[in-house]
Design brief:
The complex is a heterodimer. Chain A is an alpha+beta fold. Chain A is about 25% helix and about 25% strand. Chain A has 16 helices and 26 strands. Chain A has a 7-stranded mixed sheet, with helices on both faces. In chain A, about 60% of the residues are buried. In chain B, about 30% of the residues lie in helices and about 15% in strands. The chains are: A alpha+beta, B alpha+beta. At the A-B interface, helix 1, helix 3 and helix 13 of A face helix 1, helix 2, helix 3, helix 4 and helix 5 of B.
Chain lengths: ~700, ~180
Amino acid sequence: MPDTTSALGAPTERREGPAKVTGAARYAAEHLPGGLAHAWPVPATIARGEVASVDDTAALAVPGVVGVLTHLNAPRLGEADDATLAVLQDARVPHRGWYVALVVADTLEAAREGAAAVTVTYAEEPHDVTLDAASPAAYVPEDPDGNPDEHTRGNPDEAFAAAPVRVDVTYEVPPLHNHPMEPHAATARWEEGRLTVHDSSQGATAVRQTLASLFKLPEEQITVVSEHVGGGFGSKGTPRPHVVLASMAARETGRPVKLALPRRHLAAVVGHRSPTVQRLRLGAEADGTLTTLIHEVTSHTSRVKEFVETGAAVSRVMYPSPHARTGNRVLPLDVPSPSWMRAPGEAPGMYALESAMDELAVALGLDPVELRLRNDTRTEPDTGKPFSSRHLAECLREGARRFGWAERDPRPRSRAEGPVLIGSGVAAATYPVLVSPSRASAHAYPDGGYVIRVNATDIGTGARTVLAQVAADALGVPVDRVRTEVGSTDLPAAPLAGGSSGTASWGWAVHEACTRLARRLAGQLGQQLPPEGVGASADTEGTPDTNYAESEYARHAFGAHFAEVGVDAVSGEVRVRRLLGVFAAGHILNARTARSQFIGAMTMGLGMALTEHSTMDKAFGDFAESDLASYHVPVNADVPAMEAHWIDEDDPHLNPMGSKGIGEIGIVGTAAAIGNAVHHATGVRLRELPITPDKLVTAL
Amino acid sequence: MGADVFHSEVPLTVNGEARRPTVDHRSTLLDVLREQLGLTGAKKGCDHGQCGACTVLVDGRRVNSCLLLAVSLEGREVITVEGLAPAGGDLHPLQRAFVDRDAFQCGYCTPGQICSAVGAIAEARAGRASHVTDPAADVGAPVELTRDEIRERLSGNICRCGAYPHIVEAVEDVTR
């Protein structure tokens, strides 16, 4: 009898670990087919207008250059749902950095020299890249259900005016960049009409669908492989221009083509977190009970496509109040297209809401943990649906206990060590539970092994490992008997690694396939399996359980963040001394990789709070901080004692694993907790991220 | 491709093996490793010496291989992450510690972190001070790799997945 101790929840070691630490794991740009050519794109140097002329004579004269593609000679592509993928199709330049040419050469050096030698002239037009929340061009977009993205309950304006205690504040978050360590890359080759692409993507299924549409091919003639992906954080969640350009260049030149984007290009072509201007109005009774919550968010989008940073959505989930207005507005500008960045909407939205809640706690003279406890709820304020589970209060209490919150002197500027002012802060976190339909297959072989196949993407989450755990439990076998194959469109189709939904979506299908396989095997007990094995497959498309929109429950993960900072009163430098998060995200499926995700997201939140900042240059329409020397992500010395804990929830309304998704919630409350700690340390409330010494030292 | 006015043959040792790649004079060590020698363990994260993903050891010292012109490396000894452990053998102790501590997620910065840690440990042993070393400490005496020392010395290697606390633990595992 095999050992059937539950595999789920165990700290199982990451399966691809040895390959990653020895350099054996190959990423998208690390495939070297024979005859490989290299491509280098040419970005537009104006913020708005049209390409007037392209002179590629000098580029073509560079030894090793084999071709220059522009809108004048590039093949016509089919329909793209995403207009940022219609590369080299016309003369239009919608923003600076938009690609206007692609040079292909025998070597990387020649491609780069060739790209520098392309001369492009432009018919320039006046541009506007300034996010002005009062602009009449800002509009209320549709929410995911097709309704206006402004929700109102009661009479929020009147109620706010009548509230005994009021906070009316505006918070701003600058543009932020995902900057995964692996820049977006693709290696493409055509063989007898078949396209094979190694792409750095969070979801190869969607990449294949898109390439099929653009290159007018049946999907069966395309294979997209994303075996190892060097992070994405949302920026690889949709197909990006590089994969289209590489595929196009490979077809035009008849050679395999590799295109690895230069780091400095990323800010303009792979999405960014839109800046937000967020006005919060909170009205409360003297006991802290919220009577009014008004959260109005304005973000920017590009002229090419609408993307909305839905910061106000969190105020529909967090706290009940009889009167509320939560609205997202968006302003189209001549800027690069924003897109998903880890917890899009939630991260900036909760920064503003949870900072405002801290201000309310101060105005009330109430402990900020207690204020949140007094405004806890069992039903989702916006929909009235009961939460399938909500353990926010437990996270706050457990976090407070572990952090030593009770010893905190609530008065600002009450603790110092020499010139260093010390303070602590708290913030709550939330992230929705999402799931998408997926397929998967499971096979049993005569040698006692099992293979799970699903086109999941392991962007560093440990998907291979956790899916093996899911399978092992469903099959009732030890986890080391299960092999997982992920990361190729030759496997059963599956949704992307995004929205903290990957494990839930893929795992559901894996669980289903394994359950069916176990049933088949039970019917053949004692029989020798055929050499090709016995298999079962599953497709969760259309199963009512996966349709959360029609559900009677609201499903969200919750958490609480605690931060301790030291602020140098002379220099204004903020150092985080401790960060502690407690999360309630259903059943945690792998304690080891889950911890890594939580602390990793908290680290990105630390960057959001203190170091990460991009400036949209008004004159040039360019992100001024476009490399890692100027866009400051946290480094090892910035990250102190970091703790992640969780409350294991038993929620029967989720999926067969009982999980909620953990990739994003760790970032959500971090910036507010740090900002609130800075206020506690100094008495200074900064309402614009990041909290840098220049801003703080002038306010101290 | 042979040597000409734009190319030279460069004899050097890579992971203990004598190699003689003919390199474009503009080629960085990183590009020669990745594109010509098929050693893709060293990663290109920024190509500007800002992220550390390309870190390798040259004559035992850690360097950003994206900032070194390959043509300048005649006779030098290069060790990449592929050369830390003997082929087919056990993992290098740091490689093992990184797996044990789950000191990475996406893995793209990992070869650079590990090579950088090998270099940093050697530097500390050789008595090279860092920004956080006690100024009163004996010059040239081995520096104890406290957590602060590890954090400081590995801050040239960015990990966007945020595995820093686990990286520190992994380095401690082999230095304690």
